[in-house]
Specification:
Elements: H1 2-6, E1 12-17, E2 20-25, E3 30-34, E4 51-56, H2 57-67, E5 82-87, E6 91-97, E7 101-108, E8 116-120, H3 121-130, E9 136-142, E10 145-149, E11 154-158, E12 177-182, H4 183-193, E13 203-209, E14 212-219, E15 224-229, E16 234-235, E17 240-245, H5 246-254, E18 260-265, E19 272-274, E20 282-287
Antiparallel strand pairs: 1-2, 2-3, 4-9, 5-6, 5-8, 6-7, 7-20, 9-10, 10-11, 12-16, 12-18, 13-14, 13-17, 14-15, 18-19, 19-20
Helix pairs in contact: 4-5
Length: about 290
């Protein structure tokens, strides 16, 4: 990729000489790169067609796009570096988390698979391109690999050999408080309050009082404060304020599949749930609050 980005347009000559390959452009720019013996290139793993999961391509893409932003990017937690496809007897959970937020999508299990697989984020990213033009996608899980065939090529990856954490344990079963508001207005107000956030904490707060719900950000070093009332908010509950990472909240609201957003929560220290009502699946988006520093 680095070479392609700098090489000029026109003719390109490629010469292979022993353990080196030389790439030379028409204008004379030359790259000499060492190669590895072809015998060391790994063999393609055997696909034993042990477990087949078939789904409409559009639905699989929606699931992947709903999960990607919540997948952990830190290499120190390899179990979280992919999305968990957990096949139970009656349902399939598609889960991603980085410890600060979590997305769980549940669908009916119409396969005979009863096992969990952690699929790497990079593989899921490429799937969107690989499946272009396909009406249906069939993921095949065979031993430690996942395979996908688009009719011309086979795209495979090793699954992550780690134990995924007990995600259900962090999802609260009873959140007594409930807020509904329009997605468009919430995103606009998050953008407005982000103007005054401290760049180190990126923190905003969602504030609830009698007859009033608003976003607020305070940047003490720069003496900036922003209030952004949510006119479409419907809330009847206790007075409190919940702190959020503005980017995490924006990403969660952006991927909320409906215009009317529903948030449930217990207090300012407990997990907040976004709960869209969908017909063919159940989606839970969880955000952990942050301590408000003003």
């Amino acid at each position: 990729n680095d070479i392609i980005s700098v090489i000029d347009e026109g003719r390109v000559d490629i010469d292979i000489a022993g353990p080196h390959i030389n790439i030379k452009s028409e204008k004379g720019i030359s790259f000499d790169i060492p190669t590895e013996p072809f015998q060391e290139y790994p063999d393609m793993p055997e696909n034993k067609h042990e477990a087949l999961f078939t789904i409409e391509t559009s639905k699989l893409k929606d699931i992947i796009n709903s999960l990607l932003y919540a997948i952990n990017a830190e290499p120190t937690k390899p179990a979280l570096n992919g999305a968990y496809f957990n096949f139970d007897e009656a349902s399939i959970d598609f889960v991603a988390t980085d410890g600060h937020r979590l997305v769980k999508i549940t669908k009916q299990n119409e396969t005979n698979i009863q096992k969990g697989f952690i699929i790497p984020k990079k593989y899921l990213n490429i799937l969107n391109i690989f499946l272009e033009g396909q009406k249906e996608a069939s993921l095949i899980f065979s031993e430690d690999y996942v395979f996908l065939n688009n009719g011309k090529d086979v795209f495979y990856s090793k699954v992550i050999d780690e134990k995924f954490p007990n995600y259900n344990a962090v999802i609260p079963s009873e959140n007594s408080e409930k807020l509904t508001a329009q997605k468009t207005e919430m995103l606009s107000n998050i953008k407005a309050t982000s103007i005054a956030t401290n760049k180190n904490t990126n923190q905003i707060s969602l504030n609830f009082s009698e007859g009033r719900v608003y976003f607020k950000s305070v940047n003490q070093p720069e003496s900036k404060t922003v209030h952004a009332p949510i006119k479409t908010a419907e809330y009847k509950g206790n007075e409190l304020a919940i702190g959020f990472n503005a980017t995490y909240l924006k990403e969660a609201i952006s991927r909320y599949p409906l215009e009317d957003v529903v948030l449930t929560f217990k207090d300012e220290n407990s997990a907040v749930l976004l709960l869209p009502k969908e017909t063919d699946q159940k989606t839970i988006i969880l955000l952990m609050p942050v301590r408000i520093n003003e």
